[in-house]
Structures are given as C-alpha cells and as structure tokens.
Write a structure and sequence with these properties.
The structure is a single chain. The chain is 23% helix and 32% strand. The protein is α+β, with helices and mostly antiparallel strands and 298 residues long. The protein folds into 2 domains: 104 residues, no CATH class; 185 residues, Muramoyl-pentapeptide Carboxypeptidase, domain 2 (2-Layer Sandwich). Strands 1-4-5-10-7-8 form a 6-stranded antiparallel beta sheet, with no helix packed on it. Strands 2-3-6-9 form a 4-stranded antiparallel beta sheet, with no helix packed on it. Strand 4 and strand 5 form a beta hairpin. Helix 2 crosses helix 3. The longest helix has 16 residues. The two termini are 41 Å apart. The protein binds zinc ion. Zinc ion binds next to strand 16.
Length: 298
C-alpha cells in the first residue's frame, strides 16, 4: 500500500465538530458525534482515494461522509485490514472499538457516448445513459428460436448469417442474451452487487448504462455444457466463433488477459457486432476490442 501524501491530520474534540479533508476533486468529512478526543489520520491514496486510520482507543461513534465534484463519483468504503468492501453509501458510521483503516474509494465519472454509433467506445470509462436503440428487431421474427431476444436490425441480420453458416458446419448455438435495457441491467447489477459487492461485480458485470448489451449489438452465445464459463472457449461453438465470428462482423469484446484494458474478466461467449470491415481490421490488429475502437479515427 502506497501512501502518496499526507493530506491531513485531525484532532477531533468537543461535541458535533466536523472536519473536512479534501483533495482537488474528492473529499471526506469526519463528523464527531459524541464528546471525546481522538487522533484520526487521513491520507490521500492514488490521487483521489482517501485512507482514514481510526485508532482502537476511540470509544465513540465517528461518522464519515465522502463527496466529490461532478467529474468524480464515490464507489465504496473498503475495510483495508479485511480487504473487504463494507458500504456503498457515502455516509459511514464507525462505532467499532477495535480500530479500523477505511478507504474511501472514488472513480472518475464516465464520459457520455452515443449508442447509435456502431463503433461507440463502451466500457468502464464511458456511459450510454438511458440510451435505447430505435431499430431493435427480433432475432427470429417467427419466434421459433431465441424467444423475445432482440438486436439492432443490422446486427440481427448479420447474426442470422453467422448462425446459418455455423449450422451448415454442424455447429449450433443458443443465444443466451442479446439486447438488454438500462433497467434490466440495473436489476442485474443490483443483484450481483448485493451478493459480491460493487468492486467484484464490476469485473464480470457492467453497471447500468455501461453495458454493450444496451447497444443492441452484443450477443452472449451458448448452447453448450459450458455456457458462461471460460471452458466455453474449448467447445465446438467457442472455437468456431473464435475462427469465424469476425467474418460476419462480430468481435470478441473481453479477451483472455485483456482485463487491464477492458476491466472485465475473459468472456469467450460475448461478441459485439461492429460491421465486417472493422471486425476484420480488429482481428488483424490483435487488440482488445475497446483498444481498437479507441484507436480508430472516424
Ligand atoms: Zn454479454
């Protein structure tokens, strides 16, 4: 753990006193709720995060309040000894006599992008907002397969071409997920967050407004015993996609070892339609999709 600079040293005393420790963009307020005095250290970590060291001789409640300017947002409080996320609400009350080191964890607020752009950069640093495509079509209009699942028209046509070609080679798919609205993603992320905490959930799920599925061009392929698992890559279906998906305009969004760029663990089942021309260029580039999309000038 690196502490880049000492932002403040607080001596709290008296009743109802509050101290405000701020960095350029983020801040933490310590509110002393009861009488008494205690030394509480506050450090700035990683430019925007704070670490608050509350000693074990403290015998009263301390309330912490995290806030930030518009360019940043608060993510969660982390108990550093337990290496565990303890709350996502900006206010946090410490009444533990054991002493604790808490981190106030922030992030830069994502940049708004327009989902209509087939090449939109969608990831942890960007935000689609409540975007909803206006040309969503059922993947199978006759509803014999892929019940109710929709994609944008161009992507739905391309997917059907892909499915036909695969079928001719004896490879059959089930479409596990296609378009998902902001609201659906919100419910999904909330469920994950409740079980795993926000930091862990973010590695395998997008926050609402940040999912490629909201674009109406992303598809989760399945139809194997290993759906939604890394082993999908070794199935007939997984291998076929790896070799052929780009020919139909689909790119693998979250490659193995790409977490540093994508923010997501390897998902061999998740592909996004970007058109044949770009999918071919992406394939040759060897880049993670998001890096490719950031690199193109259009
Ligand atoms: Zn997916």
């Amino acid at each position: 753990m690196m502490m880049s600079s000492l932002a403040g040293f607080l001596l709290l005393s008296g009743c109802g006193r509050s101290d405000h420790i701020s960095h350029t963009t983020t801040s933490v307020t310590l509110i002393n709720e009861q009488n008494g005095a205690a030394d509480i250290d506050v450090f700035v970590v990683d430019e925007i995060d704070f670490e608050i060291l509350i000693p074990d001789n403290i015998d009263r409640k301390v309330t912490l309040e995290a806030s930030s300017d518009d360019d940043y947002e608060f993510l969660c409080w982390i108990d550093m000894q337990k290496d565990k996320e303890v709350s996502t609400s900006t206010e946090f009350v410490v009444d533990d006599k054991e002493g604790v080191t808490l981190r106030a964890h922030f992030r830069k607020r994502p940049k708004k992008v327009c989902g209509d752009d087939i090449l939109a950069v969608v990831g942890k640093e960007t935000m689609l907002g409540f975007y909803e495509p206006d040309d969503l079509k059922l993947i199978d209009p006759e509803q014999r397969k892929h019940k109710g699942k929709k994609l944008r028209e161009e992507a739905a046509l391309a997917l059907n071409e892909l499915l036909k070609a695969a079928q001719k080679e004896g490879v059959n798919f089930e479409i596990k997920s296609a378009y998902r609205s902001y609201e659906t993603q919100e419910r999904l992320f909330h469920r994950y967050k409740t079980v795993h905490g926000v930091l862990k959930s973010e590695k395998f799920s997008a926050r609402p407004g940040q999912s490629e599925h909201q674009l109406g061009t992303a598809v989760d392929f399945g139809g194997t015993r290993f759906d939604f698992s890394v082993e999908f890559e070794n199935t007939l279906q997984g291998k076929w996609l790896m070799d052929h998906a780009f020919l139909y305009g689909f790119a693998l969004s979250y490659p193995e070892g790409g977490e540093e760029h994508t923010g997501y663990i390897y998902e061999p089942w998740h592909y996004r339609y970007i058109g044949v021309k770009h999918a071919e260029k992406w394939k040759i580039s060897g880049l993670a999709l998001i890096e490719y999309l950031k690199s193109i000038d259009y």
